[in-house]
């Protein structure tokens, strides 16, 4: 049972770390001379790097908000798991923890979908998707699977 709990916590923490990295690191769209993320657009010309704030469009603000909400809900889910681990009665299920983690996964999925659809308006065609964008898509199934595991999991003594 201890190994199962440890595996669930490791899966949850992995999803949380991926959410942090994908939200903060500047690599949602990249090419050899520039990179863009949710917050800045950075370009390098003749060895000089210049970063400008992100566009103030409604869609990028929606993506920013959804990614931040996914981090908050995933963190709250981890906190609730530890609280429920010590307070939940024997045989009880971790429904609240699972619901928060599933919400976190849906938020990151929604943010990544909005970015995918609206990316062509903001980022130049020569840029490709960066590793932070890919990490956001990897965090989605990890968070969803951990949320499902929480819903299925029963507390034992």
From TrEMBL:
PROSITE patterns: PMP22_1 (PS01221), PMP22_2 (PS01222)
Main localization (coarse): membrane
Protein name: Peripheral myelin protein 22
Family to which this protein belongs: Belongs to the PMP-22/EMP/MP20 family.
Signal peptide from the UniProt entry: 1-29
TM segment ranges: 58-82, 94-118, 130-153
Keyword ATP-binding assigned: no
One of the GO biological process terms: nervous system development
Membrane-topology annotation of the record: Multi-pass membrane protein
Compartment annotation: Cell membrane; Membrane
GO cellular component: plasma membrane
Gene this chain is encoded by: pmp22b
Keywords, ordered alphabetically: Cell membrane, Glycoprotein, Membrane, Signal, Transmembrane, Transmembrane helix, Ubl conjugation
Annotated InterPro entries: PMP-22/EMP/MP20-like (IPR050579), PMP22/EMP/MP20/Claudin (IPR004031), PMP22_EMP_MP20 (IPR004032)
Protein function: Might be involved in growth regulation, and in myelinization in the peripheral nervous system.
